[in-house]
Specification:
This protein has about 600 residues and is an alpha+beta fold. The protein has three domains: about 200 residues, no CATH class; about 190 residues, no CATH class; about 150 residues, no CATH class. It contains 30 helices and 15 strands. The strands form six sheets. It has a five-stranded mixed beta sheet, sandwiched between helices. It has a two-stranded antiparallel ribbon with strand order 4-5. A two-stranded antiparallel ribbon has the order 7-8. Strand 9 and strand 10 form a beta hairpin. Helix 23 crosses helix 30. It starts with a strand and ends with a helix.
Length: about 600
């Protein structure tokens, strides 16, 4: 059996399918990213009879209704949304959202004398040679006779036969053919993605989350189209507060819905730590409510898939949409969201640059929602979620094929409970070998985007540690203010003694310090700047450091895990210093983890 069919349809038929809902287009809330000139080019290609690429649709499976009848599946648009939007804008006159989420008209003008198309502007508007808007002519709002008469009145010297010929050609745009590739409902998501990539040579990659978004956006029966708005609007409000006015002014139906009441707090809220996109929102809501990790399963469930009988049932689709709706509402709930953010900050992960894995955050939020829903005491919820978050970052749990890992973890937690499964994960991944060897080895890196190093910084923030050679400035403040990362053995000093970048930029040679200290230390070897610091302490002056006692200096070095060898260290001691400090940093991370 063919898994897809390829056929041509006139533009007019395609547009009628869209109007009647035979092709379900994901509601166009995303900005129309084509430039107006590209719309003009598309119309010009149709006029000239050039191919304009394929529209790809994927038929939804036939669903068994409660009365036993089969309901024929709609076609869901997989690729070609921008082209279809361009056609409906230029030919039907539909307004589109620009990149600032403002509704605009795109008017395409036509010059029958030169057969050129242009996006309408003030100069063309004043020129009698240009028909200001092709839409009424192509869309049968005015007859060809009237269009010719109007044009000839403004251009009496024009050749009427030529004008008639060109306007008739213009009218024929709606009869021009567009290629449609219709994919069979029996294809799985991976195959559909592969077909999409092979046909679409622009290097665009579809994620399974895109299929979920297309699926729910095209669904009106179960309110999926509103769920899509809930996801989109929430993600937009995080980064663009002005979007709230757009919702209230232009989407009154949604503004009166419970979804808007649930998310509108973000219009005045803020989040620069997590900042989820639509994939993250779907990931968390789905993992939490369905106890699954693979988006392809969600598409199947929303289609009504019965995994045992391999058929499609309306009651499964209905239940799946209801569950997804609950998950999304719990995700955007102000109390849930803000408490989770505070929980993350309380681990010491105070800045997004310390969190290298978004999926560690996603899974932790799904776990947080799940444990709260199960009625676990808040203190226990916090303990398990914090440990899971830090453990998953330390071992890079979701850095590879994250969907499979998420799927496995949520199913195991469901089966064994969080306490037993976390204990099992710790036993398997965080044994003595990890703390004594793997973690120390992970810290042997010159990349600051390193899980072990970022967790080390979180441990310092969590302990409220002071910056290197500073009396009161906290490391957390410097991280938030993008303070200086200082080389304990100065870069220039090591470079002058034959060390290369990969050696002097080791994370174990980094500390956060105040800019003034960094500048004053310059390229002095450690034993020299520490000797000067001690002289200043005795003299009561504060040049290199703000520390005012020998005891405070000892304490500062200890908090920053600096080996005592630094007092006498030269470049010859650098490698031994790094080994010792990595060991001390790993010890701090272990102690921090065990106290979570």
């Amino acid at each position: 059996m063919a898994k897809y069919s390829v056929h041509q349809q006139p533009v007019e038929t395609l547009l009628s399918w869209i109007k009647s809902g035979d092709i379900a287009i994901p509601e166009i809330q995303r900005p129309f990213v084509w430039k107006a000139a590209k719309v003009r080019d598309l119309i010009d290609s149709l006029y000239q009879g050039y191919p304009v690429g394929y529209i790809i649709t994927w038929r939804n499976p036939d669903v068994k209704l409660k009365n036993g009848e089969l309901s024929a599946g709609k076609k869901v648009l997989i690729d070609g949304q921008q082209r279809i939007t361009a056609l409906t804008a230029a030919i039907v006159g539909q307004r589109v959202l620009n990149k600032n989420y403002k509704e605009i008209n795109i008017r395409v003008a036509f010059n029958p004398l030169t057969e050129r198309f242009e996006v309408l502007n003030k100069a063309l508007e004043k020129s009698s040679e240009w028909i200001n808007n092709i839409n009424p002519i192509v869309n049968d709002e005015i007859s060809i006779t009237k269009a010719i008469r109007n044009y000839m009145q403004l251009n009496p010297d024009a050749d009427e036969d030529l004008i008639e010929d060109k306007i008739e050609n213009l009218k024929r745009i709606k009869n021009k053919q567009v290629g449609i590739i219709e994919l069979d409902h029996s294809l799985d998501i991976d195959t559909v993605t592969e077909i999409f990539i092979r046909i679409n040579q622009k290097g665009v990659v579809l994620s399974n989350a895109d299929f979920v978004m297309s699926k729910i956006a095209a669904d009106e029966q179960h309110g999926g189209n509103r769920m899509r708005k809930l996801v989109d609007y929430f993600c937009r409000l995080i980064v663009d507060k002005g979007c709230n006015k757009h919702i209230v002014d232009n989407d009154k139906e949604f503004a009166n819905h419970e979804y808007y009441k649930a998310l509108k707090w973000m219009a005045t809220g803020s989040d620069d730590l997590y900042v989820p996109n639509y994939i993250d929102v779907l990931r968390v809501s789905y993992t939490y409510k369905f106890s699954r990790g693979k988006f392809s399963d969600l598409v199947a469930l929303l289609s009504g898939r019965n995994f045992e009988t391999r058929t499609y049932q309306e009651d499964i689709a209905e239940r799946s949409y209801a569950l997804l709706s609950e998950g999304l509402m719990d995700f955007v709930n102000q109390t849930n969201y803000q408490r989770f953010i505070m929980l993350v900050q309380s681990t010491g992960l105070i800045n997004s640059k310390l969190i290298s894995s978004k999926n560690s955050l996603n899974f932790s939020y799904a776990l947080y929602l799940k444990l709260r829903k199960e009625g676990m005491a808040e203190s226990e919820v916090q303990h398990y979620v914090k440990r899971w978050l830090i453990m998953s970052l330390l071992i890079g749990r979701y850095s590879g094929s994250s969907e499979s890992m998420i799927d496995e973890d949520i199913k195991q937690i469901n089966e064994k409970g969080i306490a037993a499964y976390l204990a099992q994960m710790e036993q398997n991944n965080l044994g003595e070998g990890f703390w004594d060897f793997s973690l120390v080895s992970d810290l042997e890196s010159s990349s600051v985007n390193n899980n072990a190093y970022n967790v080390y910084l979180a441990a310092q923030c969590n302990a409220n540690s002071t910056a290197f050679l500073s009396k009161s400035m906290k490391i957390s403040s410097l991280i938030e203010q993008r303070g200086d990362i200082h080389h304990i053995f100065p870069k220039k000093y090591l470079s002058d003694n034959g060390f290369i970048q990969r050696q002097y930029n080791q994370v174990a040679n980094f500390v956060y310090t105040e800019q003034a200290t960094n500048i004053k230390v310059g390229k002095m070897p450690p034993k020299e700047y520490l000797a000067k610091t001690m002289e200043e302490i005795q003299a009561g002056t504060f040049n290199i450091s703000t520390i005012d006692s020998r005891q405070a200096l000892e304490s500062n070095l200890r908090f920053n895990d600096i080996p005592a060898v630094l007092y006498t260290a030269t470049h010859n001691d650098y490698d031994d210093f790094l080994k010792t400090r990595r060991r001390l940093m790993a010890d701090k991370i272990k102690e921090y983890y065990e106290l979570l």
